[in-house]
């Protein structure tokens, strides 16, 4: 399960329905052109928190059907409605997803016992492994080393997607739990995380920059830090421009430049205006 995983985008039509043909094209582009090791399905980048349970299942179906066994597949099933999270975990496991992942429960201020219960409830319902999805900036859930350790006590918790700029904590987790998988979550910090010996990374910009990201990761693993730093610089020029123009709609527009029908984002995310579309095309020309 090590390696680089694209946090998969989903193609939606103007009304917000899943555009299956476009989704298949995104899957193929990531596997065949970006050559990533796996796909992280229905994460933040998949606009997971904006869609219905039925759409989540539909996306799990289409992605598995298109990807087959070509790459590893991780299904993000976390939801505030725990019954839904359990149902999705079972659904993805039955489809053959290699692992599930669940975002820490958010919005309400759950205490740690509640968070632990959430993970154990999901895991008790399936015969599959789980990767914790930690993204404090969006969830407000900041877990410390001991709390990660408590979650790791469940053998089915095989790792964490660590989307935070706290490299002190990242190093402590790496040191304390050498057998757990750690995936870096911020693409712009991939080199810094790789130096700390993470096992892989999961990122939105890999949809269009996967090959370069993989090179950064492999160079760092080989100790070729100078070369890796050059590539991280080029990558960060790209990421800065994407963030400046609007993260998900810009990645979709860049995919369209590559001939992939990435469709629209779900409301309330807004579409790019004409200037934004032009800018996205320029980003593709200048930075890819
Ligand atoms: C997911 O769940 O879709 C991703 O794994 C999330 C991933 O960590 C991305 N974070 C967000 O989009 C909030 C990053 O790839 C991020 O988009 C990138 O580093 C640019 O900041």
UniProtKB/TrEMBL annotation:
GO terms for molecular function: N-acetylneuraminate lyase activity. Aceneuramate binds at residues 44-45, 163, 185, 187-188, 204. It catalyses: aceneuramate = aldehydo-N-acetyl-D-mannosamine + pyruvate. The active site is at residues 133, 161. This is N-acetylneuraminate lyase. GO terms for cellular component: cytosol. It comes from Lentibacillus persicus. SMART domains: DHDPS. The gene is nanA. Pyruvate binds at residues 45, 202. Belongs to the DapA family. NanA subfamily. The keyword Lyase applies. Pathway: Amino-sugar metabolism; N-acetylneuraminate degradation; D-fructose 6-phosphate from N-acetylneuraminate: step 1/5. Keywords: Carbohydrate metabolism, Cytoplasm, Lyase, Schiff base. Its EC number is 4.1.3.3. The keyword Iron-sulfur does not apply. Homotetramer. Catalyzes the reversible aldol cleavage of N-acetylneuraminic acid (sialic acid; Neu5Ac) to form pyruvate and N-acetylmannosamine (ManNAc) via a Schiff base intermediate. HAMAP family: N_acetylneuram_lyase (MF_01237).
């Amino acid at each position: 399960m090590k390696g680089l995983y694209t946090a998969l985008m989903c193609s939606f039509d103007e009304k917000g329905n899943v555009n299956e043909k476009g989704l298949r094209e995104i899957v193929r582009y990531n596997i065949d052109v970006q050559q990533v090791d796996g796909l992280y399905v229905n994460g933040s980048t998949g606009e997971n928190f904006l869609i219905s349970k039925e759409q989540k299942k539909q996306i799990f179906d289409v992605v598995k059907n298109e990807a087959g066994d070509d790459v590893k597949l991780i299904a993000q099933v976390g939801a505030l409605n725990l019954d839904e999270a359990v149902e999705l975990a079972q659904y993805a496991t039955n489809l053959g997803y290699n692992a599930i992942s669940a975002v820490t429960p958010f919005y309400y201020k759950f205490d740690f016992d509640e968070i632990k219960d959430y993970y154990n409830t999901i895991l008790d319902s399936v015969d599959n492994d789980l990767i914790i999805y930690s993204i404090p900036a969006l969830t407000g859930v900041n877990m410390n080393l001991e709390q990660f350790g408590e979650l790791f006590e469940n053998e089915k918790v095989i790792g964490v997607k660590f989307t935070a700029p706290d490299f002190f904590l990242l190093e402590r987790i790496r040191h304390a739990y050498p057998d757990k998988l750690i995936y870096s979550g911020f693409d712009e910090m991939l080199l810094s995380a790789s130096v700390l010996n993470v096992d892989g990374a999961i990122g939105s910009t890999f949809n269009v920059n996967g090959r370069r990201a993989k090179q950064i990761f492999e160079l760092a693993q080989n100790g070729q830090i100078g070369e890796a730093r050059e590539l991280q610089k080029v990558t960060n020029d790209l990421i800065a421009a994407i963030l400046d123009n609007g993260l998900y709609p810009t990645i979709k527009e860049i995919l369209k430049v590559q001939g992939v029908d990435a469709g629209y984002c779900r409301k309330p995310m807004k579409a790019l205006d004409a200037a934004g579309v032009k800018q996205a095309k320029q980003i593709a020309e200048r930075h890819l």
